[in-house]
Specification:
Elements (H helix, E strand, L loop, with lengths): L1 H4 L1 H16 L2 H12 L3 H27 L3 H8 L4 H9 L4 H24 L11 H8 L8 H28 L6
Helix pairs in contact: 2-4, 3-4, 4-7, 5-6, 7-8, 7-9, 8-9
């Protein structure tokens, strides 16, 4: 909406996103979870809420590039409504960067969820969660260090896997990058 309409709409929406960007994401997540209460659902809602500005900027920049192209102008001249232009003409051509950003965002979501559970704000016992497993195994670091290794290794492997999948999708969908 911000990229399509521009002007005051763009300025207002993007200033709100800038305010959210100004604060560290983990701080915003902790504030939201503290207000809503510690649970896995609230942690995921908070992580999703904090991820909005990144996607908003990405969509806005893609829309700004697409809305000036000839096929969009031709569709506008043919009498297409704003809704049709946004949903049927512009958005399908902006979806590739969103797909890539989403897969890359899964990695940061795993890290943030593990951090929240490590702090006791994520999944609550008896639900198993890697961050909580790390926190609970801290007391055994001298006698059983492997209790720290396995949850940490799983977090690492999951994050690395999402990053590699995101890279692969980017290579597959962006012919200029795949060389």
């Amino acid at each position: 909406i911000a990229g399509y309409f521009g002007g005051k709409t763009d300025a207002i929406i993007m200033r709100i996103m800038d305010i959210m960007f100004a604060l560290p994401s983990i701080l915003l997540i902790v504030i939201v979870v503290a207000v809503l209460g510690p649970s896995l659902t609230n942690a995921m809602l908070a992580i999703g809420f904090v991820g909005i500005p990144g996607f908003a900027r990405l969509v806005r920049s893609s829309v700004l590039g697409e809305k000036e192209k000839e096929y969009v102008i031709a569709s506008k001249i043919n009498g297409s409504s704003h809704l049709r232009l946004m949903c049927k003409v512009i958005f399908p051509n902006c979806i590739i960067p969103l797909i890539v950003q989403t897969t890359m965002g899964f990695a940061s979501t795993v890290l943030e969820a593990a951090a929240l559970s490590f702090l006791g704000l994520g999944a609550q016992p008896p639900k198993p969660e890697w961050g909580a497993m790390l926190m609970n195994s801290m007391q055994y670091i001298a006698t059983a260090p492997w209790m720290l290794v396995f949850p940490g290794m799983m977090i690492f492997l999951t994050v690395m896997s999402f990053n590699l999948v995101g890279d692969g999708i980017m290579d597959a969908l962006d012919p200029k990058r795949a060389s």
